[in-house]
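Input record (one chain):
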Amino acid sequence: MKNFYDGKVYLFFSMVCLAVSVFLFSVSFYSVTKVEPKAANFIALGEKASAGKTDAIDAAAQNEMNQNYTEAYNILKSGQMFALYQNFDSNSMTVKKVLAYMDNLVKTKGNFPPDTSIYLGTLLERRHSGAMLGRNTGIFFASLSIVSLLFFFNEKRRKASK
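The corresponding structure, as predicted from the sequence alone:
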């Protein structure tokens, strides 16, 4: 029976795992460094506009708060690749209710209440947990790539010794 050289399989598997890892790292890195800080900034600006008031807010502050919260919601409306809102888990039920509530506010161009930052914080937290899951999955694929490379070098050494 002819021996099959497994080195090519290990090398190909390692390259595929490395490519998947780089993709996952880049998506998560973009979310953590670009999208989440931008959304958090709009949420903070909305909180600053309400300045801790829970009752009446003047028209200019309300308009600024509406604008900032709408921008934050538009950023957070589409979930991160690993934290999509249609996925079924215990946290997604809360997020679905927040999305319905926020969609209604944005669609009717209603005034956001001052505590809207809590709802947007829930969406931001979901997005961040998805980015962390993407990072951890990238680490897993990178480790698979390294293990596969070790098998490749072992197979190459074994072939050379024959």
